[in-house]
Amino acid sequence: MLTELSGGAIAAVAVLGVLAAAGGIAVFVVDSMARATFALLASFLAVAGMLLVLDLTYLAVITALMMTMEMAVMAVFMIMFMMNPAGLMPMTMVHNTRGSAAVGVGAFAVLVVGIWTVDWPTRDGEPPADPTRQLGEAIMGSHMLVMLVVGIGLFATILAGTVLATARGRYDRFGADLKASRPDDPVPGGLPR
Amino acid sequence: MSAELVLQIVLTVAAGLIGVGLFGALSQQSIVMVMMGLELVLGGVLVAGGAAWFFLAPELPDAQMLVVLALVVMAVEMAMGFAVTIAIYRTRQVDMVDMATDLRG
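^ Those are the sequences you sent over. The predicted structure of the assembly is below.
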């Protein structure tokens, strides 16, 4: 059975795969948080490229756009929270390296053994002319329940993220029953209710 | 080159990303670096889902839905991770996991 991928596409997948893995390793090798962020971005752009070669244009573009924005946000957080964001001195902030490496290598080994020993089924059918249309019809049809659950999950994330990140909410200012006549602020003169 | 071989190569890349991500998530002390490790694991899921769709069952949208789900999980993990980082930093000035070991359990 021959794949539909041309020789060039196979070479592209291989190169992008090496790039993705190398970027992933670089994340935990480089000295600076900012460099680690951009190494992760490179890894994800390579992943997006692999999806592009596999005909999943829409998902590849979504991955690339989402990861670019996400890493931009992450870089800001790096500078906000972390020491040594610029990598001006060597940085090691690790614990239990040996055990972690054993778990990582062990997981990789188990997966690789499975991947190379399983008798993979042959391809069932051909890719549709427009994979994006296939996904859209699934989202709006047979797989709508997945999107409903995802929607509720994302909404819960918005609420939970806001609650967690809020420094002083109305319950801190007006008490648990919200009945205090004056807000309890560290500096008086804030906005009323 | 047979399709099965290409599938195995792509899945090996995915396994590599999962292994590296696991190592990072377990070994890093900085909370944001732990999140980077988890993102790498999910990146491996993206690659594996795309390969499963293309090489095994392109007529069914299920593998594409898996990729969408992995992308959503990534977004949720990022948002909640940063919210928790802000909350714990604000109350305790904690930015490393080792400084919050009393949360274990």
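The helical segments of chain A are 7-27, 33-53, 57-81, 97-117, 131-140, 144-165, 170-174. Chain A has seven helices and no strands.

Shout if you want it in another format.
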